[in-house]
Amino acid sequence: MDSLIAASARALAAGDMLGALKRVALREDPPALALRGIAMAQLGEHPRARELLRRAARGFGAHEELARARCVVAEAEVALAMRDIGGSPRPLAAATATLEARGDDTNACQARLIAARRLLLLGRLEEAAAALAGLDARGLPPALAAVAELAAAELSLRSLHTDAARHALARAHEAADRAGVPALRAEVSEAQAALDRPAARRLIDGGEQALRLDQVAALLDSGALVVDACRRGLRAGDAWRPLARRPLLFSLMHALAAAWPGDVEREALIAQAFRTQRPDETHRARLRVEIGRLRALVTGLAQIEATARGFVLRPQEGRDVVVLAPPIDGDQASLVALLSDGAAWSTSALALAVGASQRTVQRALVELEAQGRVCSTGRARAQRWLSPPLAGFTTILLLPAALSLE
User: Fold this and answer.
1) pLDDT digits (tens, 9 = 90+) for 115-171
2) Residues 303-312: pLDDT tens digits?
3) Confidence band (pLDDT; 50, 70, 90) for 406?
4) Least crowded by CB within 10 Å, which of 88, 221, 361, 383?
5) What is the pLDDT of residues 346-367, one digit of tens each?
6) pLDDT (tens digit per residue) in 311-326
7) Which CATH class is domain 333-389?
């Protein structure tokens, strides 16, 4: 390693991106390209950073497998920052294996963290937990330890394990202070603030009560029959019945729970579930069919009984019925929550994260743009979507998750 490369690397480690670029800006050799790419990434110029890192990886020879692997890891982190999460994870996995085989434990750990953070973005919480399980943040450099603890805290928050999240954030705060990186300190502070912000609303007697994450967790563990409009499911004790992919049944369940202990008229259920104000016999017949399906789904948790004018919900074991509403209304709450992280998302990445088709996501984004809640930059494949940060509450419960709240 020559003196300019070494000086540039030291400047990057100290957070001086411009100083690092000044030393290698005119050089085209692979080490200089790699350093330029990392500096550009830290300056927020992600497309240019990706291009430089790819050129550096191609420039390293066959005998420089370790350097190529490090470039792959750096490019993967750039892709994560760009929310380009649709690519294959195999190159990163291969680079991780190379780094571990060559004894570069720090960069191998960084590669594993990138993979885990990608899984968190996709809502694949069980896989993210498995990826984080083998990491020991205590032996890492402070900055990397802070990122590892932040990832662990996010996993705990999204699983509603608030005590574990507080402990992880305390460790992240300590590591960020040792690292002396202002951006890391700010990220940890923002995550800590999420614990004290409203995360959901409990609907009660025509009003509502704001709940923090720890209060939501206590409510879900209380044994009450909770109709969770944040995660679109039904919770009672340890039982969880997901309804995210059955919106009509969830709409009926929500209406019955909101009216509990009273009943709901058939016409009101038809209007809410089928979006019509002029019901006929076909709607009434379909309502009977859907109520039958809902009865089968809630077996063991509650009964749905017919009354003279409609239907009523009867929870079993004397449970109370609680309706948990998200902090913001609308069918596109998950999209708004994803976009509020300040990053620019592509339509394909959003579709992958929420588990919907690109066409469905495109229609939702057009509606949100018409309401002034999101904006787009670029065109065609370069189009990206942005939203201003949502203040006053946390969107943890609105983020997509493939893990039941157990």
Assistant:
1) 999 999 888 999 999 999 878 767 788 989 999 999 999 999 988 899 999 999 999
2) 999 999 899 9
3) very low
4) 88
5) 888 888 888 888 899 899 898 8
6) 999 998 888 999 999 8
7) mainly alpha
Could you count the other beta carbons within 10 Å of the beta carbon of residue 10?
13
Architecture of domain 200-325: Orthogonal Bundle (1.10)
Phi and psi at 65, nearest 5°, equal -60, -35
| Geometric angle at alpha carbon 97, from 93 and 100, rounded to 5° | 135
The first and second tokens of residue 268, run together, are 């009101």
- Match domain 3-194 to its CATH number in 1.20.1540.10, 3.30.230.10, 1.10.3720.10, 1.25.40.10: 1.25.40.10
What is the spatial distance between Cα 394 and Cα 378, in angstroms, rounded to a whole number? 29
CB-based contact 61:98 (threshold 8 Å): no
Is-same-fold flag (3-194; 200-325)? no
pTM exceeding the 0.90 threshold for the entire prediction:
no
The letter for the amino acid at 217 is A
> Mean pLDDT score of the chain, rounded to an integer?
88
Buried b (16+ CB within 10 A) or exposed e, 364-401: bbeebeeeebbeeeeeeeeebbebeebeebbbbbbbbb
